[in-house]
Amino acid sequence: MVFGIGVDITDIARIKAARQKNPGFVQRVLTANEQVIFNTLSTKRQAEFLAGRFSAKESFGKALGSGIGKTSFQDIEILDNAIGKPEITLNPFDGNAFVSISHTDTLVMTEVVLEKRLE
Length: 119
Description:
globular
C-alpha cells in the first residue's frame, strides 16, 4: 500500500551556487558513502550528482510528510546498484522506498514512492 509520493525539481545552477557559498554544503547533503562517489566524478557530474541527491532527499521528505527538517539529509542515503539504478539504502521509513532521478543540463527531477509493508 502506498504511504506517500514526493516529487521535486531542482535547478542545478542553484546547487552549484549553494556549494560555492557554503563550503560545508556537500557534507551537509551527502552521507560519507555518497561523498566517496561524489569525489570520483568530473566537475559537471559532481554538480548533477549533488543536485540529484539533494532533490531526491527533498522528495523523500515530501513523501514522508515531514519534509527535510524533521528528517535530515544524513538520514537518507541513495547509492547506485550494480547496474547503475539509484536505490535508497538508508532511510527512517519503516517500509519500502523507491526513487527515480532524471536530469537535463539545467534541471533535475526526482520522485520518491514510499510503500508500507503488508503484514
